[in-house]
Structures are given as C-alpha cells and as structure tokens.
Amino acid sequence: YHKIRESDVECVPTCVPPCSNGKCVSPNICECFHGFADSPEVANQCDAVCDPSYANCDNGTCLAPNYCKCNDGYMFQNGRCVPNCDPACINGECSNPNECACLDGFVKN
C-alpha cells in the first residue's frame, strides 16, 4: 500500500507491475475492466476478450473487446475473419486467401 499524494490518511494498494486494462484492488491483484480478462502469461495484465458470437477471431487477433484484427489475406465480415479473394470468386466461394472453391457443376477456367 502507498499513500495518496493529496491525502495524509488514505492508503491505496500497489500493483507491480501496474495493472494494464484493470484496476489495482489489493496488493498485486488486478480487477480487469469489462471486456477484459486476466492474461495467463503476464502478471497484472488484462487481455481483451472477443465473444465468438460477436467477433470470432479465428484467423486473426482480438485487439479490443469484440474487435478483431484479421490476419493478412482475411477480412472481417459478419462477425468473423473470412478469407479474401481478389478478384472475387465467380460461381464459387473464397475458401482460403485468393483461392476459390467452385460451386457444384462448375470448374476452374
């Protein structure tokens, strides 16, 4: 615990290292802000949480609560990182970055 500069009577907990995306509630114990959870790797760090029903970050990284940064070759669409094909697939679906899978009855030209 340490004293607050402006106060001679109030002491607050100290977290070392300081809490990231959370509040120090007891010595070296952080309470994560809404949308964040304890990091399994780093002490006193709270990592962003992406709820798969809103932001499925397979093929990407959760950077902020329910916000994904998609890997190269993917784009965020309808709540998930999906492969991107440029040019777009005609009579097929983009199955991997710049790779089209033809619909039944169609072949690649």
UniProtKB/TrEMBL annotation:
Transmembrane segments: none
Domain named EGF-like: residues: 10-47, 49-82
InterPro entries xrefs: Cys_rich_tripleX, EGF, EGF-like_domain, Growth_fac_rcpt_cys_sf
PANTHER family, sorted: EATER-RELATED, FI01909P-RELATED
Name by which UniProt lists this protein: (northern house mosquito) hypothetical protein
Gene source species: Culex pipiens
Lineage of the species this protein comes from: Eukaryota, Metazoa, Ecdysozoa, Arthropoda, Hexapoda
